[in-house]
Design goal:
One of its GO terms (biological process) is fatty acid metabolic process. The chain is α/β, with parallel strands linked by helices. The chain contains seven helices and 24 strands.
Length: 446
């Protein structure tokens, strides 16, 4: 019955947008409440300002965020506020006293979105169709209602569109030789700095970061390397020639500035970024987010060279009482001399590295791996690196305001994997690192 009642309550919130008002004035109220979110339509990596007006002084309200993803799954968030002496709540100034986050967090309703109580847990809210916006409903409810409970009476609503691309950005689907993916070009004549964008072992084509990079002036190539079109369906042996072909294509594109290009990668994508800047002269800047400077899992081939992959020791995986898998200690130690043949010789790279890690990454030891990479570079007299290390942040550090997910379902195994991190600290890491990543790429690519 609870699931049915909750579903009905949220269904009421999902009716066609209109300004919702209380049925009549309450004692001490100042009239109908309104909520304004500005801009009502904007880029997903830019903040909004949220204000509630027309409340009674000191009135307790819950603000809720609500999103339905492309598969029809519901994600929600909530926070508790008290109206000030004028009957107003301003999220840029006022403190959340409970709910999914506390403190002054203007974008908390966005980065704390998680699967609603009736949905399958541990789903990640990732936008796949970047041609249309992610629509967020922000509602104001009477009283303080806790996460997972039926909210109080609706006092006001507003609808927000979060876009992952800007007007004028061009999206070109690629079938160039063996290369697959999507090229995003900013509006204007260019030329623009070129960046290849890769994610981890979830596979497929993931475009949201590339499209956002294009809105900020980069020619960004979203590059899948398995489980897309005619690419291999699973991640087996990888061949650096595929990534070299992509780098050459981007470098030679008439809209790309050159002479060198950059790469940005997360997880396995960061590991590939280490290899690309080491072996490919076209690559002069690499942003490695939560990566390892040793090759892992799948062997990497390049001409006559092969880097074997470090393996995961399944006996070192622990499972919590709630069925969450902790793989933190499972990867073979890259510092073990027996595994030296898996190390990427990053000291040979002539370009520059930006290493981005969360110190509470539980997916693997990315903070330790970054220190290992820096030590290796220093031993060879190199200072071509910068480290961004964030206390309390977990594994997947995305562009700002995208929802945090400390446990996520593995796309292949369908099992919940612990990624680590604390929600608020991770959100702050995403916001800070995104600006620094763009600065780094502009510095080294022009």
């Amino acid at each position: 019955m609870w699931r049915v009642a909750t579903a009905r309550a949220w269904a009421a919130c999902l009716r066609p947008p209109r300004q919702c008002r209380a049925p009549g004035p309450r004692s001490g109220s100042r009239g109908a409440a309104t909520v304004a979110v500005e801009p009502a339509a904007g880029l997903a990596d830019e903040p909004v300002a949220t204000k509630v007006l027309g409340l009674a002084p000191g009135q307790r309200v819950t603000l809720r965020g609500l999103v339905v993803n492309e598969q029809g799954c519901l994600f929600d968030s909530c926070a508790h506020y008290l109206a000030d002496s004028r009957g107003e709540v301003d999220l840029s100034r006022d403190t959340s006293q409970g709910g999914d986050y506390t403190g002054v967090e203007p974008m908390g309703l966005f980065w704390s979105l998680s699967p609603a109580g009736m949905e399958r847990p541990y789903q990640r809210l990732v936008r796949k169709q970047i041609k249309t916006p992610m629509k967020v409903e922000v509602s104001v409810h009477q009283g303080h209602s806790h996460p997972g409970t039926i909210p109080g009476q609706v006092l006001a609503k507003a609808n927000v569109e979060r876009w992952f691309t800007a007007p004028g950005v061009r999206r070109i689907r690629l079938k160039e030789g063996s290369v697959r993916g999507s090229l995003f070009l900013p509006s204007g004549d260019g030329p623009f700095p070129g960046v290849i964008d890769m994610f981890g072992d979830e596979g497929g084509l993931i475009e949201f970061r590339s499209s956002l990079l294009a809105t900020h002036g980069f020619a960004a190539l979203s590059l899948p390397y398995f489980d897309f079109e005619d690419l291999p369906t699973v991640m087996k042996d990888l061949h650096l020639e595929y990534f070299e072909e992509a780098a050459r294509f981007l470098q030679r594109h008439p809209k790309v500035k050159g002479p060198g290009i950059g790469v940005i990668g997360t997880g396995k994508g960061a590991e590939l970024a280490f290899s690309m800047i080491t072996f490919l002269p076209q690559v002069v800047a690499a942003v490695c987010i939560s990566g390892c400077s040793a090759n892992t899992v799948a062997a990497l081939h390049y001409g006559e060279m092969t880097l074997p992959g470090l393996r995961f020791d399944m006996s070192k995986i622990s499972i919590s009482e709630t069925g969450v898998f902790d793989i933190f200690d499972a990867l073979d130690d890259p510092m073990d001399p027996a595994n030296s043949h898996c190390l990427i010789p990053i000291e040979e790279a002539e370009g520059h590295f930006l290493l981005v890690v969360g110190e509470d990454d539980r997916n693997w030891k990315s903070s330790l791996f970054a220190k290992m990479a820096i030590e290796r570079l220093r031993q060879h007299g190199k200072d071509n690196f910068k480290l961004l290390s964030y206390p309390g942040a977990g594994h997947r550090i995305d562009p700002p305001f995208l929802p945090f997910c400390s446990v996520a379902l593995d796309c292949v195994l369908g099992l919940p994997i612990l990624g680590g991190g604390e929600r608020r600290a991770h959100a702050h890491a995403q916001e800070h690192s995104w600006g620094k990543i763009q600065e780094f790429l502009h510095l080294h690519l022009g």
